[in-house]
Design brief:
Helix 1 packs across helix 3 (51-59) and helix 2 (40-47) packs across helix 3 (51-59). With 154 residues, the chain is mainly α. It has helices at residues 20-35, 40-47, 51-59, 66-75, 95-104, 107-118, 122-135, 141-150. The protein is globular.
């Protein structure tokens, strides 16, 4: 007799791709690890895994079990629910939130945010934003206009 498993409605299991929830949870593990300045080796050592297993978790290639997620939450000093924050239903994607999350899962993105936050002079921050905006090649005009509307003027 075959193995029974639950498959959410609308999920095509014929593709050999990771489940979006596993990808999201893995991305949150990566983001938190980078925020803390931990290497994959160090996190793996803390929870008794190999760095390759951490890589697979972060990419969503391997599903993280409940007890392992609890260990990771403890090692990363966050509640388990942290890994599910900002999880959206399929089709409910928010492009700006996805772009921000993608940025924060890279070492350069984390450094950029850390250094930008350290700039206390609001005039310097505004000039830096203007510089980055002028260097950006593929920013959608309508979206940029909306971002500018939400930007406070000090």
């Amino acid at each position: 007799m075959g193995r029974l498993c639950w498959v959410p409605c609308g999920v095509d299991m014929t593709e050999n791709s990771p489940d979006p929830v596993d990808v999201h949870v893995g991305a949150r593990v990566r983001m938190r690890r980078l925020m803390l300045g931990l290497s994959q080796d160090k996190l793996a050592e803390t929870v008794g895994l190999t760095f390759q297993q951490i890589q697979k978790y972060e990419k969503g290639a391997n599903r993280i079990g409940a007890s392992r997620l609890f260990q990771l939450a403890s090692a990363l000093n966050v509640p388990v629910q942290y890994f599910y924050e900002d999880l959206r239903k399929p089709g409910g994607m928010n492009k700006t939130a996805d772009e921000v999350a993608a940025l924060l899962t890279t070492p350069d993105g984390m450094r950029l945010c850390r250094y930008f936050s350290a700039i206390k002079d609001l005039h310097v921050r505004r000039k830096l934003l203007d510089l980055v905006k002028s260097l950006a090649d593929d920013v959608d005009g309508a979206e940029e206009t909306q971002l500018d509307k939400n930007r406070p003027v000090h």
